[in-house]
């Protein structure tokens, strides 16, 4: 059988996560880097028929004037990641893929998001529907140009402010109707998701933006036979919460308070510095403790932009808990992780698993991907160990 | 049916762990404290027919001149745990139970251990066999005096130095033969274990001492129809390792080094300050990383005696790991736990579960107790989540 | 010469800091505790003729229904500080001194502060002037009743919101005039300060409230020949900043960012949980970096109320700095201090030093007390080492 | 006046500290890097007539087969410091200076040190005297070849084991006599120091090796009119101790225990992994607490080799102290510093200050350099602030 050719379309293609993903794909294909960080490279998932790195072509949307290569170089310079040799060797791939990056759409962005959009050809759209059509045209053109067997769309764009879904978000047909009206208040991320799924492409929301976590989108995915997943990759503090909170629960230790303080200095951090956009992230990080512990401890999460940290997100967590005979004790941890590098291999993981799911004929929410997300849509299990068992079951069963 | 009466016999009865266990039993019986910290109080174990706190009578061996109450008061004063009200209310129980504490045996202790034994009636024994008989006499007398339906023996004595088991430890009959000879070099903990099991009492080794983790002891337990468990309660740093290492493994993050630095100031710490005895503890803490990760990262564990900390064990762990594209990142944690308070509820847990196992007719190693131990005898699974599932299965299945 | 008798009048007398100060005075007088934590007990200050603990009588104002003893007991129970023996022995003193606590005045408090005032006899006042007179009447009555040679007034009341001083705060006579008008918007702390100083009593502001840091108050102090000091005792994170920032400066290491995250659970924390009141504290903590470093690094300070911590204030600081050849490095620290216990000995220190200053005939701002305060009024030196030298010079010179 | 030309001769020239120093000199000369990290670049030392970076020529001794450039590249690759652009631009200087590096002498090294010496031309010497003469020949040849006005010698070689100085170390003449005998047991570092000073070159010991901290060496320096300084650059944990311990002392807070745990992965760490050599370092780090506090708290210092950390030394310190009314509190810090980058600018500082001192006609121990050293020879003051004032006084006075 001929090797499959598949496309990875990234919304926010020139952002830190996307550019790192592209560099990683190129480096893996060229054998320049080990598969460290890739969950789908684990022996226990070996039975799955996943696409090799070499099978992928990269494209995407962005609203900023940047290329994959310039984004990689910026990360190298500012955050002191990657090495010169890998960048130089992969530069031709990054350059070629940058040609596939199209101007994004931005539907009524707030100020923080509008400030980013310095790409002159970002498209003004009269109605949500027009945005959807523009996106679909780009996706199909990409698929045809590169003769792709399949295409997966991932949202790695900047975090949007939270929004309260109205009744039009309850069912696919209502949403379709609402898209026609120029007055409809929908986040851009809903439009991207609608476009991809409606056109038959699996869709994964890597961000805390809530625009794809709607009954209407889920319904559309089932109707179109398309697999779907999200929301917000679980890369740092929340990952730790999802393994530590079950430990306290199993030992019957009572968590009184859990304080998490995050600082980071990349563009994502800059956008999150806007209180509106930050609200989405904090919400996404904070929900799981009550589910994991069975009660609601006092919990505080803060995220602050500290420029000098660049892509190195540092989290300090302070957990105050009570043991036997009323004794209060403390666990503190500090996590110093490079965000884009933690996220990128997971982007490849969920892309590969989505393409496989589509080939297997699965549609709707991919519950077995819960272990990848802070707020796994459609799954109430937040224990990372149990979430991972769901993936192993899928792989091995 | 009449209420069962059961005995909890603690070797090292006047130590921090044992005295706290006794205070906890009294406080639970009197309704003075919640069940926080007790695993067996979790709803998911509710189906098990476990003995209520009120069913327990406490006794034990020790070699020091101390009582349960004096040990509790010392912890209160030095480590600032417990409160005056609870101590006063439970003092009568502690006094009554102290009458059940008998002089321990100490077979060729090293200097650090010999230094502890200031109780004038500690018994000099001509042969291992004589020690076993003395212990059995004490256990049976306690059972009769208190009309106990069952009795469980736990070893909460000071950590012994490591020892290399000879061929006499390979089978129960060989061990029986060796006990007769006065020249036999066996740790005291082997003698206590032999005595308890041979007399038909379930036995749990809460310490890093290896004397009960022998094929001969396991064989004896099966022969006598007695349940058995150990070794070394998992209360702090190792507990965290057993939930964090699987997280790194599942995310395919490569751990380069894991450094753990423990400081503590209680009597256990003082004994561990002796390099010989420390070796047992370090060994017990260090084994699991290779099993959990599938490879052996550089790993360092140190334990140091810092007097001012008293019972507050503080651990600093530094985990250096590599993610995608060769990027090195760091997780650090600090654990500030009060050792006796972390251990005591688990003593009650394993005691209750051992008594139940005996009633159920189980014998030999209780694999379902693996989640309680740093080096669970007879179990290779070190993932705390999976170990806990074994317990849930036992409870719910 | 007969022993002097001196009074310590605390505004906020039943708060954590004040009650601990009172317990400490009683315990020192009875020889029940060492002088640890008392700066004025250091050998290098021995030349100063300071009042002995036994010389002090305690009184104060508060708006809550509480006594010194109840406040001490609450700290003992909730924050696990003090011991039963000390409390019992000192209870008679605390009871006696509680009789000297008078209802406070509260001039147009905001909601957070008004919520505290459950003492039924808190006095409604028609004008600022009336408040000042009430306070002065209480101070003089106390002095006469106890035949005090001297009396020092310290403000240990809840943090007020920041306020922007108007022109009436520029000079003592303008302030005097303004006090007459009922429409004047002045914080309560200005009224207390005015009352004390106008009546000839040294005054120290231990809080971040800005009401006593005004040219008008300073002018009044000089006019009345009264020594003055403030603002905000330097007990934790800021103390560390004032020794660490000079280290970075002297090594020419460039601090890019300094993030400080504070959590605490006492009543002060509860009041600070109100964003308005919090603003005063954050301001008070944040000013010194630019002065110490000579440039302004990115700096974030947050304070959050975490109930379970009670009086144990925990601060995590993350300092990101650049060394030679552009290399970024990190210092992090965690401070776990019990706030009232850190503050109380300093209250005694500044009280003793103020009484001495008055005897020496000094008036106006006591610059030599800068080392005690986060925002030392009238002093630009923030290097703790240099501030301390000012005190040593005063003592030894 | 013509520009001075000065030489910097580094023993251990191809080690991390030395190579970084050389790169820094080149980068400063070329204007490629700011003076961050250089104490002598501070405005408050501007009055001193110090040599500009461009005035320096670099040479040295080493026993390993390596060049300055290979050492720099290794640091870049393994420790992720420096950037490609700076290295390339400075490569010509590093290459030229490498030609000045001569084979070192190694007198009876222990196994750990002997293992390093893979340079084939390392010189076997029949007696200490012969070693001294070899070294002096190299120094003079370097001075002549480059027409240097002055030359300073710094020891940046691997840490030696501690040694107990015999009576021959008490006076310069006794030492001279001892050098003649082939049986004399002297550390290599004594020979280097003797050679440099005897030949009239200022000498600075940057290492914990004790070989230059001898009355005989001090006597020789005064006799030859040569300035001298050492021992062990104060770059990390000890620097922090020297600012934090005075803070505890000034607040009369009683430090019960101070635990410092250091991990590092460079060659220095590898040498220190040998228990013999480690002893020197631990001794050097541990002495100052008693001096600073006025009493001896329990203190533990450990240093461990953790390969993956490379040049990133990480220290965790736990300080347990008592405040008022017996309350125990905790300060913890984590220091993540890149060792060579912290040390290198200080090497330039002490070199510049030594050359100046010689020009000023000073000889013997330079007490005003105490702020640079962990164990400042001849100075009992360990308070960093006060040590720095000594330097300011020297500069400004
Ligand atoms: N890095 C992580 O560990 C991590 C983890 C979980 C989630 N996330 C989320 O992933 C997203 C990307 O993170 P990042 O660090 O790459 O951020 P980034 O700011 O570097 O990249 C986001 C990109 O999205 C682009 N963009 C913004 N609006 C767009 C639009 N309407 N259409 C097309 N492109 C648009 C921006 O121009 C930018 O290039 C964020 O939402 C972040 O919260 C990141
Ligand atoms: N506290 C924890 O969290 C924890 C966790 C795991 C394991 N452990 C282990 O539990 C054991 C007890 O810890 P602890 O903190 O109570 O120590 P401890 O020193 O307070 O108590 C040990 C007691 O054993 C007694 N003892 C010593 N030799 C004896 C002998 N031959 N016969 C009878 N009694 C003897 C001692 O006199 C002492 O009273 C230690 O081995 C420790 O390593 C403790
Ligand atoms: N504890 C520390 O380390 C520390 C350090 C620096 C500054 N401070 C400041 O000291 C002050 C006291 O702190 P605390 O922990 O004791 O707080 P607290 O809340 O325990 O005590 C404050 C007391 O002031 C009383 N009060 C409020 N308004 C009053 C009024 N108008 N008149 C009279 N009394 C009034 C309250 O009823 C309360 O009893 C706060 O402003 C705090 O920020 C504390
Ligand atoms: N880096 C720091 O922050 C720091 C701070 C204080 C002190 N120090 C000390 O500085 C010294 C150098 O540290 P480093 O990190 O550069 O170590 P390194 O191991 O990288 O360099 C030491 C060099 O000395 C050479 N050497 C060994 N024996 C020699 C001999 N007899 N003659 C000539 N050369 C010899 C080695 O070959 C090596 O190249 C160590 O003693 C270290 O403890 C370093
Ligand atoms: Na780099
Ligand atoms: Na207590």
UniProtKB/TrEMBL annotation, chains A, B, C, D:
Q: Which InterPro entries match?
A: Myo-inos-1-P_Synthase, Myo-inos-1-P_Synthase_GAPDH, NAD(P)-bd_dom_sf
Q: What GO annotations for molecular function exist for this entry? A: inositol-3-phosphate synthase activity
Domain Myo-inositol-1-phosphate synthase GAPDH-like intervals: 236-340
Q: One of this protein's GO BP terms? A: inositol biosynthetic process
Which EC class, in a word? Answer: isomerase
> Might you give the EC number(s) for this enzyme?
5.5.1.4
Identify the domain of life: Bacteria
| Record keyword Metal-binding present | no
Any idea which UniProt keywords this protein has? Isomerase
> Does this entry carry the keyword Isomerase?
yes
Family affiliation: Belongs to the myo-inositol 1-phosphate synthase family.
Name the UniProt record assigns to this protein: Inositol-3-phosphate synthase
This protein's species is: Urbifossiella limnaea
Designated gene of the protein: ino1
């Amino acid at each position: 059988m001929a090797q499959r050719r598949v496309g990875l379309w990234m919304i926010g293609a020139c952002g830190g996560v996307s550019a790192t993903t592209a560099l990683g794909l190129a480096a893996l294909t060229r054998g320049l880097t080990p598969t460290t960080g890739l969950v789908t490279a684990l022996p226990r998932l070996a039975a799955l028929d996943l696409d090799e790195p070499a099978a992928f072509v990269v494209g995407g949307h962005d609203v900023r004037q940047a290329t994959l290569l310039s984004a990689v170089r910026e990360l190298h310079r500012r955050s002191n990641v990657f090495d010169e040799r890998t960048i130089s060797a992969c530069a031709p791939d990054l350059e070629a893929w940058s040609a596939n990056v199209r101007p994004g759409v931005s539907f009524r962005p707030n100020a923080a998001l509008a400030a980013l959009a310095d790409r002159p050809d970002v498209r003004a759209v009269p109605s949500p529907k027009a945005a959807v059509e523009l996106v679909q045209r780009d996706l199909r053109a990409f698929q045809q140009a590169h003769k792709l067997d399949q295409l997966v769309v991932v949202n790695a764009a900047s975090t949007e402010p939270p929004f309260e879904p109205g009744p039009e978000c309850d069912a696919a047909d209502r949403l379709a109707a609402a898209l026609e009206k120029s007055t409809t208040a929908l986040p851009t991320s809903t439009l991207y998701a609608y476009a991809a799924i409606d056109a038959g492409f699996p869709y994964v929301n890597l961000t805390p933006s809530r625009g794809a976590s709607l009954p209407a989108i889920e319904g559309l995915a089932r109707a179109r036979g398309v697999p779907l997943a999200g929301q917000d990759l679980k890369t740092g503090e929340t990952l730790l919460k999802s393994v530590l909170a079950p430990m306290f629960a199993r030992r019957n230790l009572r968590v009184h308070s859990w304080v998490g303080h995050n600082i980071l200095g990349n563009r994502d951090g800059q956008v999150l510095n806007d209180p509106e956009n930050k609200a989405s992230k904090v919400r996404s990080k904070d929900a799981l403790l009550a589910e994991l512990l069975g009660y609601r401890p006092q919990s505080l999460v803060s995220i602050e932009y500290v420029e000098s940290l660049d892509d190195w997100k540092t989290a300090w967590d302070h957990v105050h808990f009570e043991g036997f005979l009323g004794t209060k004790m403390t666990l503190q941890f500090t996590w110093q992780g490079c965000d884009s590098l933690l996220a990128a291999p997971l982007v490849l993981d969920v892309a590969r698993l989505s393409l496989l799911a589509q080939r297997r004929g699965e549609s709707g929410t991919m519950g077995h991907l819960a272990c990848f997300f802070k707020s796994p849509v459609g799954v109430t299990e937040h224990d990372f160990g149990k979430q991972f068992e769901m993936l192993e079951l899928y792989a091995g069963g």
